[in-house]
Amino acid sequence: MNRHTLPRALFSVLVAGAAAAQSAAALPPSSDTLPPVKAYVVDDATLAGLTGKYMGANMLVGLRIDVTSTLHNAHSGSAHASGTLQVRRNATGGFDVAVDTRSGAEAGAGGGPTPTGVVSGGRELQVNGIGQVAQIAGDRNALSNLTAINFTTELPGTAGFNGQMGSETTAGEMTARITFLDNGVNLDLSSPGANIGQYLSQAGAGSEGRIMQIGQIFGSDIAASNRLQLTLLSEQMSTQMINQQGIQQAMAGIIGL
Questions:
Q1: 16 phi/psi in degrees, rounded to 5
Q2: CB-based contacts of 160, cutoff 8 Å, min separation 6
Q3: If we measure between CA atoms, which residue out of 190, 146, 184 comes closest to residue 168?
Q4: Residue-averaged pLDDT of the chain
Q5: What's the 3-state SS for the chain?
């Protein structure tokens, strides 16, 4: 039986899906917007008990990652980036992959002093699992980091995905960049006074994979947000599987008596 822990199994699927997506044909672009992020509470006991397989069947058969970041400064400058990667195991044992990346930036009106502060240290943190970092200096700033995990038996459709593995936009000193490359996800927004980012990386030596959201603000009147939703597609259990599981639990209870 596969005994990989949940994070390692997830990032292995992510890496395989991203590699397959690089060679996928581009789909026609669309103006469809990404669905809103919803949060679902999952208790620690549920997460701790998942191992990648159950009753001889693959438990996790697909996943979807939605990332969105926004940044606004005091002079009407803005930057935003969003991306979605959906990976689903097909009947032949391979993966069906769809990807969409978008970015945008506006330089704003300018004027006012340029922030000269420096914020460091947050990006060097080594995290296994989920990490959220906020480093803020200045006045009247706002930052939010949200990571949500949802379990489902059906993934949303992929109509309107543009098939692009990366997108980058620059306007004046505002920059937005997102890529689904290099075995993970990298999203960066930057402007004078702020650096915003989201990063997903695969499991490596001594690591079970990382989800990192970071906001570094060293100006004033800056608003930024990071949102990430990880949707896990699990195999639907047949009546036979449910009956087998019930018998197994009953037998375990008898043995305990």
A1: -65, -40
A2: 29, 30, 31, 32, 100
A3: 190
A4: 77
A5: CCCCCHHHHHHHHHHHHHHHHHCCCCCCCCCCCCCCCCCCCCCHHHHHHCCCEECCEECEEEEEEEEEEEEECCCCCEEEEEEEEEEEECCCCCEEEEEEEEEEEECCCCCCCCCCCCCCCHHHCCCCEEEEEEEECCCCCEEEEEEEEEEECCCCCCCCCCCCCEEEEEECCEEEEEECCCCEEEEEEEECCEEEEEEEECCCCCCCCEEEEEEEECCCCCEEEEEEEEEEEECCCCHHHHHHHHHHHHHHHHHHC
For 238, phi then psi, to 5°, come to -75, 170
Residue in 242, 71, 33 with CA at minimum distance from that of residue 171: 71
pLDDT digits (tens, 9 = 90+) for 157-205: 889 999 999 999 999 999 999 999 877 899 999 998 899 999 988 655 4
* Cβ–Cβ under 8 Å, residues 130 and 10: no
Neighbours of 239 (CB within 10 A): 7
Judging by DSSP bridges, how do beta strands 129-136 and 210-217 pair with one another? parallel
Q: Model pTM?
A: 0.72
In the block, residue with structure tokens 């402007």: 191
Token pair for 15:
């890496």
Contact criterion met (CB below 8 Å) for 97 and 164: no
> Tokens at residue 230, please?
């990880």
Phi/psi of residue 222, each to 5°?
-115, 135
